[in-house]
Hints:
- The structure holds 2 protein chains of 2 kinds.
- Chain A contains 6 helices and no strands.
- By secondary structure, chain A is mostly helical.
- The radius of gyration of chain A is 33 Å and the shape is elongated.
- Chain A has helices spanning 5-88, 90-95, 97-123, 126-149, 155-168, 188-197.
- Chain B is an alpha/beta fold.
- In chain B, strands 2-1-3-4-5 form a 5-stranded parallel β-sheet, sandwiched between helices.
- The two termini of chain B are 13 Å apart.
Amino acid sequence: MGETPQDWQGAREELARxxxxxxxxxxxxxxxxxxxxxxxxxxxxxxxxxxxxxxxxEQAAHDTLSAVESSLPxxxxxxxxxxxxxxxxADALARDERLVTLLGGIEGAADAVKLxxxxxxxxxxxxxxxxxxxxxxxxxxxxxxxxLSAQGCDIDVAxxxxxxxxxxxxxxxxxxxxxxxxxxxxxxxxxxxxxxGLGI
Amino acid sequence: MDKSMKxxxxxxxxxxxxxxxxLLRELGFSNTVEADDGxxxxxxxxxxxxxxxxxxxxxxxxxxxELLKHVRADPATRELPVLMVTxxxxxxxxxxxxxxxxxxxxxxxxxAQTLEQKISKIFERLALAS
Lengths: 200, 130
């Protein structure tokens, strides 16, 4: 019996189906291999690196704070010594206007240094804000790692779980301008208005 | 306002505790103690002698809002003035803190002037109430 065109047609369709399946399987295998690498090395690496950023910024902020703590009393001391000098050298100052101007200049500079040191001090607050954000991202990376190592991982479920845990646990950290769906205040003035409305 | 009052600073970031401590010193308050979360703050509060509490919200173990609720629930600390200094910015949370009995709320990042204003306001109100 000879093969009919229908048989050829059927065989071609079967071959096409097998090829498509094989292609899909190969793609899945490649993805699985990539995922395995992600779970085994990349995600733990990412967490370690985030931890390093936390440590480095914390150390840098503390070094800066140490320098500020050493400098603030010096700036204060200059101001106090100028006061003392004014009393001790009252006669000389009364005689020479140039000394008064000079002393005023030193005093102004000491005050400005003190003011700027205060700004440097407050600016180190970045470490707290960025630290909270880094911890939040590290938490997500950990969740992703756990989810991908588990069988039948559902990324959506995992993401929802992370968000719920964040809400229920210890607060949510700094607001994210674009991504945040929470109703957040714009700044201290908004907080003051809100609390004032509540009698505080 | 008594500048020698004992202030407890609670924040899990040692840098932020150090910043607040320095700011307070510049404002004339040198009597400060520190704790890194609500869990470690409670024993200090129970031991007594704390006149003012400054706390963060987002902390491991016991967050600031729980600490505030504990403070208000304990007859020994019920009247303690509490200032929250936090990055938590949702209206819902600020209302929650108000309902839990917070005396002031400063949002991070903040200025030295804001901190000074809020502390003054808290003690002015307390003086008026008493």
